[in-house]
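New to this. Explain the following:
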Amino acid sequence: MVDGLLLLLKWSLRLFGVFWIIGGIYSFQVARQANFIDSAIEQLTQSRQDRRVTYLLLICAFLTLLSGIGLVVSTRWALLPLGLLLAVQGLYFAHQQHRFRQATSQDELDEAQINPATRNAFVTSIVVTVIAGISVGLGVLR
């Protein structure tokens, strides 16, 4: 029974890893689009855009992809990109909170808002990291 539950946990993490890989690829696409939009705005306004959010998105996409690969191959090393992903997401939230406090117009307030999907992704990252940590302790991720 216990072996069956551990096997179920292992394959659940692998399946989630596939989902995480797809999410990482999608995030790369979103980061690419954000970079394109930043470039277009710079060309139109002749003013430099703050690209920190775009860079953070790109880093998160890379770490999500690495985490997914680690989960698919069932390695304990998946915890490293998962932990870094949580840290970068925390930096993003702090950056957006700072932007929100510094906003002087409605447009700036809107840009500083955190998308509910981003909050959900953060909570999901926490849950997956905790489950992966438990799985390392149980020997599911080696």
Observations:
- The mean pLDDT is 92.
- The first helix runs from residue 2 to 45.
- The CA atoms of residues 39 and 45 lie 10 Å apart.
